[in-house]
Every structure is written in C-alpha cells, then in structure tokens.
Amino acid sequence: xxxxxxxxxxxxxxxxxxxxxxQEHEVTLSPFAGxxxxxxxxxxxxxxxxxxxxxxxxxxxLALLQQREEFIHKSLSDxxxxxxxxxxxxxxxxxxxxxxxxxxxxxxxxxxxxAERLREELRERAKAEADxxxxxxxxxxxxxxxRALEQIRKEAVDLSVSIAxxxxxxxxxxxxxxxxxxxxMKQMESTTQPH
Length: 195
Known about the structure:
The chain is an all-alpha fold. The protein has 2 domains: 2-94; 146-192, no CATH class. It has 3 helices and no strands.
C-alpha cells in the first residue's frame, strides 16, 4: 500500500513537471496542446524510470525501512523486558535487604539476651564467691577464737598452778597438779560460756 502511494506521488510529480516544462515552450495555455509522440515517449520513459526505481531503489529502501522498524520494535521489546527484569531484581534485592535487616535485628536481640544472661551468671558467681569468702572468714575467725581461748586457758592454768604453788609453798605432786589443772579448766569453761 505504501509502495503504491509513493509511486502515485512520484508519477503525479513527474506529470506536473512535464506539464510545466511543456508549458514553458508553448505560448498557448491549453493542457491538450502539444506533440502526442513526445507525450508517449515521456510516458514510456517515466514508466521505465518508475519500474527501475521500484525494482532497484524503492525495494531496498523499503526493506531497510522495514528492517529499521523491526529493529525499533525489537529494541522497545528488549527495553521493556530489561525494565521488567530490573524491577523484579529490585524487588528481590528489597526482599533480601529486609530479610538481612530482620536477621541483623535478631542477632542483636540474641546478643543482648546473651549479655544479660552472662551478666546474671557473673553476678551469681560473684555472690557465691563472696558468700564462700565470708564463710571462710567466719570459720577462720572461729578457729582463731578457739586457738586464742585455748591459749588463754593454758596460760591461765599455768598461772593458776604458779600462783597455787606459791600459795602453798610446797611442791605439788604430779597427780595434784593434774587435778588442779582440771579443776581450773572446768572453772574457766563455766566462766567463759555465755549466760
């Protein structure tokens, strides 16, 4: 259809140009005035030119235009496909980013829980160690108190024996000495015990 319109346009242009050229040579303005032989030869040459142009020029030109049109359609189709693919990748990357953000938040929350648990464990361990140290200190104080009391008792017994010997001004036998020591110990125990 396009070829026919183009050929008709070229034909009309040629006829108008031939008519204009014929009118320049003629003085009369009649469209039918002129040589019929020249008109026939002009028409034959025109048809030959149109056929040659149609076969060798318009065909390749129209083929090139058709290829260009197909190329443009293909480029538009490829561009649309690439845009759709890019949008799909963008959505996929957005989903991955959200997933990574959720995972990061989960890791941070887990780290906070672990830190809280570790802090609680350290607090409990420190409290247990402090309790152990306090118990050991109390035990040590009790041991030292017992040793001190035992030392005081021994010194009191020795002092009592020494005082008793001086009072009696005599030598005490070993049995008497042990009896005096036991009596003094009993007396001291009764006085050192809290009432």
